[in-house]
Amino acid sequence: MEQVTVVTGGSRGIGAAVAVRLGAAGHRVAVGYERSKDAAEDVARQIREAGGRCLVHQVDTSDEQQVDALFDAVRDGLGPVTGLVNNAGVTGPLGRFAETPVDVMRRVVDVNVMGALICARRAVLEMSTRYGGAGGAIVNISSGGATLGSPGEYVHYAASKAAVDTMTLGLSKELGPDGVRVNSVQPGMIVTDITRPWATPSGRGATRTGSRCAGPGSPRRSRTRWCGCCRPRRRTPPARCSGCPAASDRGSFASRVLT
Prior knowledge:
Blueprint: E1 4-7, H1 13-24, E2 28-33, H2 37-49, E3 54-58, H3 64-77, E4 83-86, H4 102-127, E5 136-141, H5 145-148, H6 155-175, E6 180-185, E7 205-206, E8 212-213, H7 219-227, E9 257-258
Parallel strand pairs: 1-2, 1-4, 2-3, 4-5, 5-6, 6-9
Antiparallel strand pairs: 7-8
């Protein structure tokens, strides 16, 4: 069975790196984008030059009709969907919580939470054995901010990603018996167009939260580990499904928060 994976926010950063890596691994890839058409087409070019199949589709993931149009296009152009990388997200400007406009907060929640829910819902209807699908995998791209809180930076964004992790836990338990594995990935600082403005010049040092690490990562270096979550696995009895972060890989449908 061909692996057909939808990657939202696939034109840049983490989404682009994951899309290219999945294409190299033999997946047929749908690259979803909202504004960066040229960047999305460049990702598609890389996939095709490596011998892969893909399509590019514009979508605002917070809009149910647009998400339905994306999945319809993928099914018609690439085949039945077997995977979703829920990557599309926005942060809004960096700043203190009380100084963040409400309309910015609302847009972040619309895209990061509602968008992820809407895309996951449609993916489940496509993949779940309960609804006639053959099973599959969902990977939700969260953030280290979900556990650190990102004080002084973007608490609203961190809160939205914590919601994504909770969604992952619930869906992993609900969907495991129906052949759909659900994982959440919590990247630390990854240098992308979103994070580049406040990444330290040296690549080392403390963030405003006071946490310190060896330096920010890159989408290219991290993608292989994350893409492993998209690998199909056999259907597993409910007793072996896990909804806990950092669960053992022995569970075929474990929900893991990778940091």
